[in-house]
Design a protein that fits this description.
Layout: E1 7-10, E2 15-22, E3 25-32, H1 38-44, H2 47-53, E4 61-67, E5 72-78, H3 95-102, E6 106-109
Antiparallel strand pairs: 1-6, 2-3, 3-5, 4-5
Organism: Hydrogenophaga laconesensis
Pfam family, one: AtuA_ferredoxin
InterPro entries: AtuA-like_ferredoxin_dom
Length: 122
């Protein structure tokens, strides 16, 4: 029996983000659009994968906090804001801009969960 091939989509189709920053630390939460998508996000969007995705920002540490009752994951990235928002000359280093970067990560979604995705296909 053939298993349907999962669809690869950007994370923003399965979740939205909230951010904050304090000093040189960025806090990025990823919240599933639908509770059925949360297990996929938890399994695929790991601290290691987020650290690799942000390697150009050179985080000294990425910590992942699971919030299953909220269908969310909070990532804390240390030393990614060019010394802090008030010290940085780079506006793109603000936490809100970094959340869009995180939501660009790819996620594999089984065909039976495609109806829970948001946004335009393709």
């Amino acid at each position: 029996m053939n298993t349907p091939t999962p669809l690869t989509v950007p994370l923003w189709r399965a979740a939205h983000g909230r951010t904050g920053d304090k000093g040189n630390r960025s806090n990025i939460s990823v919240i599933a659009w639908h509770e059925a998508l949360y297990p996929l996000i938890e399994a695929q969007i790991t601290a290691e994968r987020v650290a690799a995705h942000f390697r150009h920002r050179q985080p000294s540490q990425v910590v992942r906090h699971l919030l299953p009752n909220l269908h969310a994951i909070n990532f804390v990235l240390d030393d990614v804001l060019d010394g802090g928002v008030n010290d940085a000359l780079n506006l793109d280093s603000h936490g809100k801009a970094l959340s869009f970067h995180l939501l660009a990560l790819e996620l594999e979604v089984p065909t039976d969960l495609l109806t829970h995705l948001q946004g335009p296909p393709g």
